[in-house]
Structure formats: C-alpha cells, structure tokens
Design a protein that fits this description.
Layout lengths: L1 H29 L5 H24 L5 H25 L3 H22 L10 H13 L7 E4 L2 E7 L3 E3 L1 H25 L1 E5 L2 E4 L5 H17 L2 H19 L2 H21 L1 H11 L4 H4 L7 H13 L22 H34 L3 H19 L1
Antiparallel strand pairs: 1-2, 2-3, 4-5
Helix pairs in contact: 1-2, 1-3, 2-4, 3-4, 3-13, 5-6, 6-8, 6-14, 7-8, 7-9, 8-9, 8-14, 9-10, 12-13, 13-14
Length: 386
C-alpha cells in the first residue's frame, strides 16, 4: 500500500514539474524572465493539488488518483497557453484563469471533506433542477448577463472577469437527470411498436425528452449558443440510454435535435451564418464578413498548419493572430506551438480521464451513482470531441 502511495505521489510531482517547466520555457522565450505574480500563483495552485491528493487519500482512499494527474497536466497546459497569448495581446487573462482554477480546486477539496456520500444529492433533485435552470437563464437578466461575439452566455463578476454559468448548470442538471431517470427508469424502458428495427418507446413516455428538447432549442434561440444547447440535450439522451438500455432513445434524440438545428439554421440568421461560415470558410464573402464570418476559422486552420507535426515551440508561434485564441480557439493555439504530436497527447489525456470515468461508472452498483457518473463522463466526451 505504501509503495503504491509513493508511486502516486511521484507521478503527481512529475506532473507538477512538467507544468512548471512549460511555464518557465514559455516565459523565457516571450519575456526573458518568470513574472513574480505567476510564480506565487503556481506555488499556491501546486499546494492545492497536493492538498487534494492528501484529502483523497484520507476521505476517498479508493479514488482513481490518475485522474488528478491528468487534470493537473491539462489545466497546466491550458493556463500556460492562455498566459502565452497574454504576452502578445498585453492582457491578464492567464492570471484570472489561475484565480478561477484556485477557486475550483478549493471547492473540490471542500467537497472531498464534507460530501462523503454522493447519494445525498438525490434528496435535492428538484432543487438541483431549479438551480440549474436559473444558472442557465441567468445571462438573460439585465445588468447581470453580457453578450460577447453574438452569444449571450456570459455573466460578469467585477475583478474576476466573465464566466459561463451554463458550465455549472450542467452539473446541477446532471444531478436532477440522474435522480429523475433512476426513479422512472422502469416506465421509460417499456417498449412500444417497432419501426425500422428500432423498438420505439410509448407515446406517453416521450414527455421528458420532448420537454428537454424544447428547453435546449430555447437555449439555442434565446442565447444564440449551439454548443450549450447540444451539450445539454446530449447529456440527457445519453443518461436516458444508460437508464433504459434502449437504442431507440438515441435514435429519437438524434432526429429531434437534427430537425431542430436545421429549422433554426433556416429561421434564425445568426445560426445560419455560423453554418455558412463552417461550410464555406474560404469563400471571400464569408472570410471578409465583419461579424459571423469565417476569418477566425481560417486563421485557426493556418495556425494548425503552421505547427505541423512537432510545432513551432513554446513562445515561437503567432497564436494571437486568431481572434479569441485564448478561449474559443485555444486548440489551434496549442497546435501551432506544440504541433499535432502535442495535440494528440492532450487528447490522449482526455481519453484517460473519460476511460477512468466510464470504468468507475460500470463498477458502481448504485443506480443513481451509475447514471450520474456516466452522464458526467458522456458530457465531457461530447464537449471534448465534438
């Protein structure tokens, strides 16, 4: 047991060393020195990760420690690249992101201490639903939400910048979905007529998926955000499949969202503009558009091409040429400086987290826990690979 713990600690220390070396190399090439404020923030975040490791050993000794190392490496690379873009744009997004990371780690550590049994969440299923919907709709409130780049999905906090409450809403809605589907899985698993080889559910059981479809389409229409709408709907459908084991739910969910998305692309101009830019990125009429064109997409593609197989090296590319590279197109920025090899390594770490999560979900004997774990893992997989 002690030998295993020492191996885990060594892996964590090695991950911390890799992240520190990446920051050091990037700052040496861009500024010629390591800014003191980053040094202190990195030390503080490293201490929080070590505290998290110790708390997991104390309160959750059977937790998969490899996930913590993967998360540390991915967040380290992400924050480092944001800080690297800051050197070109003369902004401080990297420091703000590190502050958010420190807050997230602090909250995670507190949850490890005080939430010893996740099943307590089932008691607050409808409270979670209300909180999730409130977070999802909060950017629409005057004076609180703000519209950026055509999508109204941001909430501003003085001193901390902007954040997307929809990301937190996914967690609360996952709690609600897991509880609801666990309680109603028997009714939803009952099959109806067979069509094209699929055993369709009964009409009266379609209510939940229709409600979620309407809400997800509402997010698309009101907030102009296809990504959140897709993630929200995909999470529910994937959890519905796990709860019932019926492939027909996936078929119905895919058809419903496809119909809604096509209708939205033809009815609402902002959705249609995004689709046109995606289909015809190199068309001059799309490339030269002042708003909603393909300039960002094209510069991101050229950034990836510039990086090639091995990349230009940290601090040696020009990722700031791509608009909003530190958030929307961080993938292109990483590809330019770390190359295809670096991108594949990052995707492999995501796959490790997803695989570990799926293994955990399959091992859980409690139905609510199985649904919750699989829903969160499916949502992460959709967000990373779509």
């Amino acid at each position: 047991m002690i030998a295993n713990r020492l191996k885990q600690l060594a892996l964590l220390a090695f991950t911390m060393l890799l992240c520190a070396m990446a920051f050091f190399q990037m700052f040496e090439r861009t500024t010629g020195g390591f800014p003191e404020q980053y040094l202190w923030m990195l030390a503080f975040i490293g201490a929080l990760y070590l505290a998290g490791w110790g708390l997991l050993l104390r309160f959750q000794p059977y937790a998969n420690q490899s996930i913590l190392c993967c998360v540390m490496l991915l967040t380290g690379i992400g924050v480092m690249m944001i800080a690297r873009i800051d050197q070109d744009t003369h902004t401080s997004a990297g420091l703000k992101q590190m502050l958010w990371l420190a807050i997230a780690l602090g909250v995670s550590n507190l949850l490890v201490i005080f939430m010893k049994d996740y099943r307590v969440l089932r008691r607050f299923s409808y409270v979670s639903m209300v909180i999730g919907i409130a977070l999802l709709l909060s950017p629409m409130l005057p004076g609180l939400g703000s519209e950026q780049y055509g999508a109204r999905i941001w909430v501003k906090i003085p001193g901390l910048g902007s954040f997307q409450p929809g990301e937190f809403a996914k967690l609360f809605l996952a709690f609600f979905f897991a509880s609801y589907l666990f309680d109603h899985r028997d009714q939803l698993a009952v099959g109806g007529k067979k069509v094209l080889g699929f055993q369709l559910p009964r009409i009266k059981d379609l209510g939940p998926i229709i409600v979620v479809w309407i809400v997800s389409m509402g997010v698309l229409v009101v907030q102009h955000d296809l990504g959140t709408s897709l993630m929200f709907f995909a999470m529910f459908v994937s959890m519905l499949y796990v709860a019932t084991g019926r492939k027909s739910w996936i078929f119905i969910g895919f058809i419903a969202f496809a119909v809604g998305a096509v209708a939205a692309a033809n009815i609402f101009s902002h959705v249609g503009a995004r689709v046109d830019a995606w289909l015809h990125p190199f068309d001059s009429s799309q490339y030269n558009k002042e708003y909603g064109g393909s300039y960002q997409l094209v510069t991101g593609i050229f950034g990836l091409a510039s990086g090639g197989l091995m990349g230009n090296g940290l601090g040696q590319g020009h990722p700031s040429i791509t608009p909003i590279a530190n958030s929307d197109y961080i993938y292109a920025a990483v590809g330019e400086e770390l190359g295809l090899t670096g991108l594949m390594a990052i995707l492999m770490f995501y796959l490790l987290i997803i695989a570990a999560g799926m293994i955990t979900a399959m091992k859980i004997k409690d139905g609510f826990g199985k649904l919750l774990a699989s829903g969160l893992v499916f949502t992460m997989a959709f967000q990373v690979f779509t």
